[in-house]
Design brief:
Number of domains: 2
Order of helices and strands: HHHHEEHHHHHEHEHEEHEHHEEE
Structural class: alpha/beta
CATH superfamily of the largest domain: Vaccinia Virus protein VP39
Distance between the termini: 45 Å
Helix content: 40-55%
Amino acid sequence: MTAAELDIFETLGKNSKTFHQVADSCKTHLVATKQLLDCLAGIGYLKWSNDQYSIKPKYYKWLLKEYPSNLIGKLRFQISEWNWMSKLEDYVRTGKPMELHSVINESEWANYQDGMRDLSVHSAKELAGKIKLSANTSKLLDIGGSHGLYSIELCKRYPSLSSTILELPGAIDRASAIAAQQGLTDRVKFQVGNALTDDLGEQKYDLVMINNVVHHFTAEDNLKLARKVAGALKPEGMYAVGEAIRGTKPGEGGAVASSIGLYFSLTSESGVWSIEEINSWQRKAGLKIQKPIGLMTLPGWKMLVATK
């Protein structure tokens, strides 16, 4: 995390450098930089030879910004997450969550969105191949779509499709900049708004998608949203909810589901939901439940689909 924040991986690139060269380039303390580089070598990210350090080639795609699959944004965002997790003891004592969206600052918003982009690069491609839309599908509403990768990959797969990404004011500047890098700004547009309070219209969309957002909402809010979405869908339209899934009993889903559940209960007013809970909102909104979509690239995550 520190190496990502200080641009140490980017400074090394695909070359070999001494710790003097790295410290000079990164404007860091000489001895402390060597200690960090030695640690990175010891845990396997770097190799050391002839007094020089280099990134192991198998990690290029994860640690160098020239690769779309890099995780530098996520590593930098984890510095904030590290600080948030330090509040876990207080949460367990009091039951009072952080309410993340009320405390996050502008810099953390940018890191958050970069981190979510990093985690979505591969899953967005996989998901686009698994969501089956008709060839003439034209309008997508992507609620809280942030970096836009899910919309972008669907638009690449379906040439007639255009997307409106509905995002909060504090998130939209960085999100639109990330989306612009993908070269689809003519078909992927951003709109400032709040899906819980805004009018979503009537029979406007073929697909309404919300990924990694409903864990911030209460059950009442999620039911309200499902009903609004049902009204906004065209006949046979689809409401797709992508989320980390809570097991129906402790331990179900393994470490991923359990850890994410604890994390979101700390950082949000709500937390993760089970398949049955999410389906119940869709069903009460008058929608017909379809088979869930699972992803190899996001263990413990599913997209729950319902149609009008």
